[in-house]
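User: My advisor asked me to double-check a structure prediction for AMP-dependent synthetase/ligase domain-containing protein before group meeting. I don't want to rely on an old file, so could you generate it fresh from this sequence?
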Amino acid sequence: MTGALTPPWNNDKDKHLFLLPFYHCYGFALLMGSLLNGATAVVMSHFQPELFCSSIQKHRIRHVAVVPPIMVFLAKSPICQRYDLSSLQFLLSGAAPAGKDLCEDLSRKYKNMTHIQQGG
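Assistant: Sure, here is a fresh prediction for AMP-dependent synthetase/ligase domain-containing protein from the sequence you gave:
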């Protein structure tokens, strides 16, 4: 069970952006796992497009867990083009399935990012 808290991207050099609610076990488990492994945690109270992108750029965020509507934002919004999001290496998605086309759009746009779909 503790293996779920120590995935390969969770170490003391990682920087994670959290915007999922912590009253759900998924958001809470991701936050606790990151903190237990010494990763930097940047927390947003809710999704704000400009702040989301500027936080990734400013803090050089490597890991973020999102829901499919935020994946659509990352794939299609012109707001994303105004920021350097190249530090993103891992994108976890859940809560609902992300379609094949959306996943392919993200892969084309963010070539160095690994997308992992969990649940939903």
